[in-house]
Design brief:
The protein has helices at residues 14-17, 35-47, 57-65, 69-77, 87-94, 102-109, 128-148, 156-167, 171-189, 200-210, 231-246, 252-257, 261-267; strands at residues 7-12, 27-32, 51-55, 79-83, 276-277, 283-286, 297-300, 305-306. The chain is α+β, with helices and mostly antiparallel strands and 307 residues long. Residues 6-38 form the Polymerase nucleotidyl transferase domain. Pfam families: NTP_transf_2. This is Nucleotidyltransferase domain-containing protein.
């Protein structure tokens, strides 16, 4: 089929499952071979309040060949809006998941490691970044771990229930993990702190039960950002470094004055399902250390992100 005419739109997530609530995003996938058309479609859907994932056919085929569970998600739950020539329909019909997702589950643990930058006695309602980080990690880990057991599920409540049984969480612990979704929503919308119980220490203990062979410690305040194995987790460690040293989110003026705007824009666009790093090399970039020497050079930061 001529990829020059590819244009596919597919709704997925809670809208497709008919489980929408006040915290739900409205998720839509757009695959189009013409870059200008792809941008126009994405803009139109975004103006209607949708969270848009955009792909070129080549990029979508790359995650297809890699056995991405996102493709399985689309296959099982996606609702096709339009599909020129049946391009996406045919791929979803042929798709088969991998036999194991253990490596992906292990990689998901790294998404929680930035929480080590926060002290155990901090209340979660005053540290919504920790709740956000834990939500992303638990959800990604749960999707992969359950898929490895033949359970292809993408709904957070179902993931929490399954992980609670596997990890023998108490009722309080299960409730706290379930509340992370609200914490994530409040953090990303810059809303008032979510009204839920628990401390960062409680969260670390729970994650230690969920994640095999990995318990979260506490890093010293001067610890530099780390390369954590994926582009997204490394970016979020920069975010946690800044927030832990400031005790709050940075202001736009602080971000602009320290040359972090391009990185901060990446951090604030949580497309963690598809971000990857071409090479986990190091390059010399300015990395601000709010509260200290703001422009000290470090050998960190990622070299190239794939989109």
């Amino acid at each position: 089929m001529n990829s020059a005419i590819v244009e596919s739109i597919c709704i997925f997530g809670s809208v497709a499952r008919a489980t929408v609530d006040e915290l739900s995003d409205k998720d839509v996938l757009i695959v189009a071979s013409d870059p200008a058309r792809r941008i126009d479609l994405a803009t139109s859907w975004q103006c209607l309040g949708w969270s848009v994932s955009t792909y070129s056919p080549k990029r979508f085929d790359a995650i297809y060949q890699a056995g991405s569970l996102f493709v399985q998600h689309l296959k099982l739950e996606g609702q096709m809006v339009s599909d020129t020539g049946g391009w996406l329909t045919q791929r979803l019909h042929r798709y088969r998941p991998k036999r194991t997702y253990k490596p992906e589950a292990q990689n998901s643990v790294s998404l929680a490691l930035p929480i080590e930058r926060f002290a155990d006695d901090q209340p979660l309602k005053a540290n919504l970044l920790a709740a956000d980080l834990a939500y992303v990690s638990v959800r990604n880990f749960g999707v992969c771990e359950l898929a490895d057991r033949g359970d292809y599920t993408f709904e957070y409540d179902h993931i929490v229930d399954a992980l609670s049984d596997i990890s023998s969480l108490s009722r309080y612990e299960t409730k706290l993990v379930r509340s992370l979704r609200l914490g994530k929503s409040n953090y990303r919308s810059h809303s008032q702190p979510a009204n839920f119980d628990g401390s960062v220490g409680d969260l670390k203990d729970i994650l230690g039960k969920i994640f095999p062979d990995r318990r979260l410690g506490t890093l010293p305040g001067e610890a530099r950002p780390r390369c954590l194995g994926t582009g997204y987790s490394s970016l979020r460690d920069i975010e946690a470094t800044i927030v832990s040293r400031l005790g709050r989110l940075p202001t736009i003026r602080e971000i602009e004055s320290d040359g972090l705007m391009s990185v901060w824009k990446l951090i604030q666009r949580p497309s963690h399902y598809t971000w990857s790093i071409r090479q986990l090399g190091f390059s010399n970039h300015f990395l601000p250390t709010f509260g200290g020497n703001l422009s000290e050079k470090s050998n960190f930061l990622t070299k190239e992100l794939l989109f």
